[in-house]
Design the sequence.
């Protein structure tokens, strides 16, 4: 394939704490083959022959962003759950009502639009925490993985990569209550049958791969946690788990098992370097030690955690314990990785009443390379030779970013400032528009089709 050349006005290279001006990025067969900082490349005196066919990228070019935690169908709830006070549990009832109306066709349409919305904001890879496996009555589709197939196809249409985190979800509480109502479609009966179905699902498209998830200690009995962990470990696949999202989860786990959810997961071999705990909003000091010692990562979802009034997790304490941090938009109250990244710092300021917890470079890593690694794509998330050619260009001349130094992008830019997105060397978004999906129209139609009247 011919070499494609991009000349970035500024590019954020992994070896520097702030963006570098005038960087020539060369791409072949979806990979970065060279990236050369140029001095005065825009002047005639530069005399660089290769610049003649380079496409200029005005603004700041970043590596592709990784959305580590997504429930695509939750996007249908945006703006619809804010009447009255409510809490996580009342919100969950509204979520179940949407889940009950989805089938493979409507899920494909909704997820295609949601993933295209992600592409518009610079997300080049998503981790879909997938537990909508079966028919609403709990019976299997003719293809037991039809809903997962819909998600893989949706990501292909949107032009982004997908890690399908096939989720084991067996019970309705730590005490082992049976699934009921809309939850019935989540369950496979036991971990062995979950593993049988998950093993049968092997996407052949290069943009998708399968990992595993333990929904939570509420949803997988203690004696079956190890089976899910072993399945992931045998395949060297990512393993994710909701952890300590609400104090009620911690209290219930202590009441039944006499220990915290983190300690229970550690006891059954779930923690480890290929595991990502999602949220971890209410850990104890002992929990932080277990997560750090096991090299388990944590995916923070600040916009969802504040939307559901779940609380603020101790992000700086996590990082200081050696826990790698990544980011997710989770329920999609907001899909904007810039907002998620700066919220890590700003929430710490609220929690501690002090400033200056995370540098811009640390926030960039959480939004890019750490996130891709958590999803099993360690060759993405950096503008470096050999890495996947994911390039996200952000305006520096909008009403939000004008006058802002490039290093300040994560504290100023937003989703609307993304003007071009390249995924694996292919342009997916240009001039702020998705090239194949009419995102607003498809979001409106697909949400209307699954929203209860």
Sequence:
């Amino acid at each position: 394939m011919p070499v494609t050349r991009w000349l970035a006005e500024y590019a954020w290279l992994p070896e520097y704490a702030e963006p570098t001006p005038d960087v020539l990025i060369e791409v072949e067969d979806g990979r970065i083959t060279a990236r050369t900082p140029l001095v005065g490349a825009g002047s005639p005196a530069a005399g660089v022959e290769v610049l003649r066919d380079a496409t200029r990228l005005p603004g700041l070019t970043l590596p592709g962003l990784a959305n580590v935690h997504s429930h695509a169908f939750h996007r249908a709830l945006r703006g619809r759950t804010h009447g009255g006070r409510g809490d996580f549990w009342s919100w969950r009832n509204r979520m179940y009502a949407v889940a009950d109306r989805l089938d493979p066709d409507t899920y494909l349409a909704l997820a295609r639009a949601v993933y295209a919305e992600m592409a518009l904001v610079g997300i080049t890879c998503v981790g879909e925490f997938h537990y909508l496996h079966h028919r609403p009555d709990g019976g299997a589709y003719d293809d037991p993985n039809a809903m997962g197939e819909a998600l893989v196809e949706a990501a292909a249409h949107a032009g982004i990569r997908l890690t399908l985190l096939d989720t084991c979800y067996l019970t309705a509480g730590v005490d082992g209550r049976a699934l009921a109502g809309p939850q019935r479609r989540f369950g496979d009966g036991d971990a062995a049958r979950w593993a049988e179905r998950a093993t049968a699902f092997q996407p052949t498209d290069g943009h998708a791969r399968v990992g595993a998830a333990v929904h939570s200690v509420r949803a997988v009995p203690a004696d079956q946690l190890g089976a899910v962990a072993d399945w992931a470990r045998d395949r060297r696949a990512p393993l994710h788990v909701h952890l300590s999202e609400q104090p009620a989860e911690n209290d219930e786990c202590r009441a039944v098992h006499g220990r915290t959810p983190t300690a229970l997961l550690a006891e059954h071999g779930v923690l480890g370097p290929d595991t990502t705990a999602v949220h971890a909003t209410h850990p104890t000091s002992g929990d932080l030690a277990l997560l750090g010692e096991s090299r388990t990562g944590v995916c923070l979802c600040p916009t969802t955690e504040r939307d559901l009034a779940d609380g603020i997790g101790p992000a700086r304490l996590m990082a200081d314990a050696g826990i790698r941090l990544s980011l997710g938009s989770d329920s999609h109250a907001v899909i904007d990785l810039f907002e998620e990244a700066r919220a890590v710092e700003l929430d710490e300021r609220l929690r501690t009443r002090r400033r200056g917890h995370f540098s811009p470079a640390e926030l960039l890593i959480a939004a890019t390379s750490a996130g891709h690694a958590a999803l099993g794509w360690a060759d993405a998330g950096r503008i470096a030779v050999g890495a996947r050619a994911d390039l996200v260009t952000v305006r520096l001349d909008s009403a939000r970013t004008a006058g802002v130094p490039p290093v300040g992008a994560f504290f100023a830019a937003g989703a609307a400032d993304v003007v071009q997105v390249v995924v694996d060397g292919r342009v997916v978004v240009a001039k702020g528009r998705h090239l194949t999906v009419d995102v607003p129209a498809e979001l409106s139609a697909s949400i209307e089709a699954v929203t209860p009247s």
